[in-house]
Amino acid sequence: MGRKDEILLDMRGISKSYPGVQALAEADFSVRRGEIHGVVGKNGAGKSTLMGVLMGIRQADSGSIAIDGSALRHASPQTMLDAGISYVPQHINLLNTLTVAENILVGNLPKNRFGLVDWKAVNDDSAARLKRLGLKLDVRQPVEGLSVAERTMLAIAKALFNKARLIILDEPTAALSRVDIDLLFSFVRAQREQGVAFIYISHHLEEVFEICDRVTVMRDGRIVGTREISEIDVPDLIHMMVGGGVQEYQRETTAGTETVFEAKSLSRRGAYEQINFALRRGEVVGLSGLQGSGVDELAQALFGLERLGVGEVLVDGGVFDPDSPRDAFDGGVAYLPQDRHRFGLIQLRPVRENVTYSVLDRLVSRLGVLMRKPEQQITETYIDKLGIVTPGAEQRTMLLSGGNQQKVVFAKLAATQPKVLILHEPTQGVDVQAKVDIFNIINDLASQGVALLVISSEVRELIGLCDRILVMYQGRVTDEFTRAADNMKPEDILLAIEGGSGYAKA
Amino acid sequence: MQRLDRHHLLEFLSRHFIWVVLIATVLVFGLTIDGYLRISNITNILITGSVLGVMVIGQALCLMARKLDLSAEGTVSLVAVTAAWLMLPYRETDLAQAGGLGIELDPLIVIPLILLLGTVIGFVNGFMIMKLNMNFFIVTLAMQLVLRGLALAISSGAIMPGTPAAFNWLGGGRVAGIPVSVIATIGLYAVFGFVMSRMQFGRKVYAVGGNEDAARASGFSPARTVILVYMVSGFLAALAGWMLLGRLEASVPNLGVGITLNVVAAAVIGGVSLKGGEGSIIGAFAGVLFLAMVNNALNLMNVDPLWVNAVRGLIILVALVIDAQKSRYRGRAGPAEPKVTTGAEPNQKPALS
User: Fold this and answer.
1) What is the pLDDT of residues A249-265, one digit of tens each?
2) Model's pTM, two decimal places?
3) I need a surface site. Which of A30, B206, B258, B262 has the fewest CB within 10 A?
4) Is residue B23 over pLDDT 80?
5) Using a CB-CB distance cutoff of 8 angstroms, which residues of chain B are in contact with residue A44?
6) Could you tell me which of A2, A35, A29 has the C-alpha nearest to residue A196?
7) 279-338 of B, contacting A, C-beta below 8 A
8) Does A19 touch chain B (CB under 8 A)?
């Protein structure tokens, strides 16, 4: 301890631009010795670029970095490691089949006089090191047997053994239970008391308030401000993240009375059980649940990517049991995948081709020749209607921004004129403007009578968008919140998602 | 969103680079090698390029679908041997030569038979790769061994000379002084150029090669598309075998050995990426012309045969380097936010933000 409150890291005037985007603009950011410093901001706010510069994997266009008062001339990953800056990613990289001890001493295993590895020394040495940090782990255990929290702590410990003074924690709690979070936090706090500084990147604002000493908010590549955690509250913080102008989206209902989609006692072993719900024409229904709640499996099955299992699905009164996405399209159901890079787009191919893949059958003459005119027409129509920002229909899709790529996927689905549209995290990884555009697209589709099922973990977005919100927990639909009943409270919904209200009812 | 002009320039260059190279090659060889641009030599280039050219179409389709067909040269030799075996009269095999089975089938029956054989081989390749989930590299490599082995067994490793004139027409015949093989090859390029750019099948091939998962989620069946691609590749390899046998008028053991690397090289030189999803048939055609011209020049310049392979290998490596750089550059030209995200990962716990 001792030298607390001194500035450990001082970044000044950091700018970085990519073709067409200013990712960082004149960012000033500093971290004190022995503090936990939260960094928050929406996706695309510039957090990852700033951290990339700090880790030496991105070169800033301008600006300076000083550590412990001495300016760094050249920022490479190695110089940053040497300067004591370490990064612990969300998905921990350890040698999973090796033991804790081997992971700690890897590359530097003690040898006995025959030149063979001295396993007793390996275990004793690593156990002693962990004990000094107050970390209780069996060093003989393979890493794959550790919980995620234990792996995270081990990764932090490894960084400390390598003389890290500033550790970047990237979404460390995303996959943790409350108990594990407490365990991790007390470990991190203990290291803080030893003078280690942490940068804590998270989307979970409650946790930021729980563990951080200061918090820095980023928006659109700029630092909006840095505050002592004691001098700010959640609404203020959200206000800083969102900015002044953006109002929360509130959609008017367009729901009709006619049922277009109905799932009846749908079950698949190990995925979901007894799923019953219906969608009406023009209705927007939210669906939320943790990983493993069955939400993902249900969505994929409804699009024919996995088996549906037992039970029945009716679309417009007809039985719907797709074997492939083609079947699903033909049955009137389209799906916007969560991972648009893997399932949504063919990045190398132009926008025009990506928009029309789903409707090629309708664009060919009897001999299988594609008709150019109608294809152009469809593409231009959707570029126009969805506001896809592109130099032209022939632009390779990979060169568009995230939001515009997402709109291309929307165009492909909308072109099939579906009766039911399932959207999986439609606003993930897109900027604020594109988000508003996407809400408008959802609204347009709904007002044309399409029934939408929006799967999202962004509860506030769902509340603004949906007529109803269903919550799945452990394979079952456990709760339903409706605008009509006026019970769509974010806190209640979050509680239900984490299994709270399900227990309460049982 | 604005894009750098540098990007457009590189994109343009990478698409049309081969034509610049081709023109330069014609100029350099034309000026430095005596008689290079004489009609007889040009005809020669085109004739030797036609078998290569036919095979390149099939391989280009495979590459566009992000696959590879190493079995094609095996198909060439099996098809040639089978055709000779079915057409030639029986005779005792001596050290140098072998006869046919003795049934002396008419070429008009044999030709459809061997084309069917090639197509079936392609189907088997595609089926194993897509339906049995086997690795395309190993499947087609093993298939090559099988086909070549069969060809050697049938021919007893001997030459089978004297194929009938009707059969030889495609490989050796001329119409109005122009070799039939050249006309046929150019015709095939026109047909497949149209298929790949203007027909549904072509669109699906590029989609599957670009991203198989997304192609499926767009309503295509990658399995059906890829199996069809291998069937086309097998069919064209059989056609190339027919053409080659017709030109030589004798089936030779080890026909087409090692041609695969040339075939892949021509496609890659012509801008068909090994990483799938792009490239054009017309570009592949330019690649074929380039390789045929270089091979011809190496002959005319009396380059020591011991050095020829080194030169060819070098050209292929250069083409591969360019292909690799192309995709590397693209990787960097992607969307602004770098891939190392600190953003919301799939299915994180719901947040109030």
Assistant:
1) 778 888 888 999 999 99
2) 0.76
3) B258
4) yes
5) 337, 343
6) A35
7) 330, 333-338
8) yes
- Tens digit of pLDDT for each residue in B110-167? 999 999 999 999 999 999 999 999 999 999 999 999 999 999 999 888 889 889 999 9
Give, as one character, the DSSP assignment of residue B192.
H
Q: Annotate B138-167 with DSSP letters as a single string.
A: HHHHHHHHHHHHHHHHHHTT-BEE---HHH
Residue A44, pLDDT score:
65
| Chain B interface test: which of A234, A346, A479 (most B C-beta within 10 Å) | A346
Q: Which domains does chain A have, with CATH numbers?
A: 7-242 (3.40.50.300), 259-344+418-505 (3.40.50.300)
Nearby residues of B300 by Cβ (< 8 Å), 6 or more positions away = B33, B35, B36, B41
Instruction: Look at A234 and B352 and tell me if their CB atoms are within 8 Å.
Output: yes
Residue appearing with tokens 């194993």: B128
- Rounded Cα distance, A95 and A103, in Å: 6
Q: Flag whether pLDDT at A245 surpasses 50.
A: no
Residue A78 has pLDDT above 80, yes or no: yes
Residues of A in contact with B351 (CB under 8 A): 203-205, 457-459
Task: Residue B351: count other Cβ atoms within 10 Å of its Cβ.
Answer: 18
3-state SS class at A285? strand
Distances (CA, A) of A453 to A301, A344, A481, B114, B286: 14, 17, 14, 54, 50
Please give the Cα distance from A473 to A276 (Å, whole number). Answer: 14
Contact B336 A201 (CB under 8 A): no
Give ipTM to 2 decimals.
Answer: 0.82
Which of left, alpha, beta for B66 (phi over 0: left; psi -120 to 50: alpha)? left
With residue A119 as reference, give the H or E element that holds it: helix A119-133
